[in-house]
Design a protein that fits this description.
about 210 residues, mainly alpha, 2 domains, 8 helices, 3 strands, transmembrane helix
Length: about 210
């Protein structure tokens, strides 16, 4: 009987050792995982800082080589700083900036060409075969463009007022980083573009 108790004590002791070893192993694995995660977090943070520093240096370099840049504030929601660089539109001359901003107006939907067309010719002119619905690849495109009726002075004023509202929408959404004198020239040129012929205003200059 005594031998059986001794045997049970040995088995219990061995089982205790096994349990302790398992617990030690699990604790070691847990600590290893924590250590690896911490190291990865440190490396990731360092990489992000390096990327951000590189992006800032690149922006400064680009700024030094251009007359300025513009950006659409809606694009700045992008978290990745390096990816955001693509949204900085640098320009070497003011005409380039003006052209790109006008294209941006059309691309972002600020310019509503149907409203311009209706202001010029009335809603009855909106027909399936109207110039407004033609594509640039249409064989009759140039012919239809040349055949557009002249716009009355009164309706030209309506179109210009519409265009001014489109420019104001654009300027509310973009930031233009250049000298104040250049900004004034750019804004004036954007407004003046609204006095162009309707055939031009109905299409993006892209």
């Amino acid at each position: 009987m005594k031998g059986r108790w001794i045997q049970m004590d040995k088995n219990t002791l061995q089982m205790g050792y096994v349990i302790l070893l398992i617990l030690f192993f699990l604790a070691l694995v847990f600590l290893t995982i924590l250590y690896i995660r911490k190291r990865l977090a440190i490396r990731r943070e360092a990489a992000d800082q390096d990327r951000s520093k590189w992006a800032d240096e690149l922006i400064q370099e680009e700024q030094g080589e251009s007359k300025g840049y513009w950006l659409n504030k809606d694009d700045m929601d992008e978290v990745d700083q390096t990816y955001r660089l693509r949204y900085y539109h640098y320009f070497d001359n003011i005409d380039e900036c003006i052209h790109d901003l006008i294209v941006e107006m059309y691309d972002c939907g600020f310019v509503r060409t149907e409203d311009i067309f209706v202001s010029a010719y009335g809603e009855d002119a909106l027909k399936p075969d109207s110039f407004i619905y033609m594509t640039d690849d249409d064989p009759d495109f140039e012919k239809a463009k040349a055949a557009l009726p002249p716009v009355s002075e009164k309706n030209q004023k309506k179109i210009y007022d519409l265009w001014v509202s489109y420019v104001e929408e654009l300027l509310d959404r973009v930031e233009i980083h250049t000298t104040q004198a250049n900004q004034d020239i750019i804004k004036d040129a954007l407004m003046v573009y609204g006095r162009k012929k309707i055939g031009i205003l109905l299409r993006s200059p892209e």
